[in-house]
Amino acid sequence: MGNGLRRACPWLLxxxxxxxxxxxxxxxxxxxxxxxxxxxxxxxxxxxxTRAGRVRFEVENAGTRPHEMLVVKSDLPPDxxxxxxxxxxxxxxxxxxxxxxxxxxxxxxxxxxxxxxxxLLLCNLVELPPGAPAVSHYQNGMVxxxxxxx
Length: 150
Known about the structure:
Blueprint: H1 3-24, E1 32-39, E2 42-46, E3 49-51, E4 53-61, E5 67-73, E6 83-84, E7 87-88, E8 94-102, E9 107-114, E10 117-122, E11 126-127, E12 135-136, E13 143-149
Parallel strand pairs: 1-4, 3-13
Antiparallel strand pairs: 1-2, 4-9, 5-8, 5-10, 6-7, 10-13, 11-12
């Protein structure tokens, strides 16, 4: 091996390892990851911001009731989405994707291609217990802001 190649190998190896680490941590052009915890009455994304591209939401229902996660692209404040009968009117907002309702203690994965902008992560379930008022998960605070940067 020539002296030039011998000197370049450690630098080349370091560059390859750095690129691999960046991709594994959500950097570069790979899939970005966000963990989302749902419980009564909150939605907690971590991180709450990522770069545009493919995003993998790993969603856990840490509550005691069924929940879902709706991803809505919107510039509106979290509590001002249009609502009909306790639910966000999905036909009146830009729904990017959804993890359908799932039970307490369960997990779901939702992968979406997201463009830059402001998003809201929310549970859009409404419970109708017999003889009691409707329970809107969204109106009880199950919504969180999520920012996607260029």
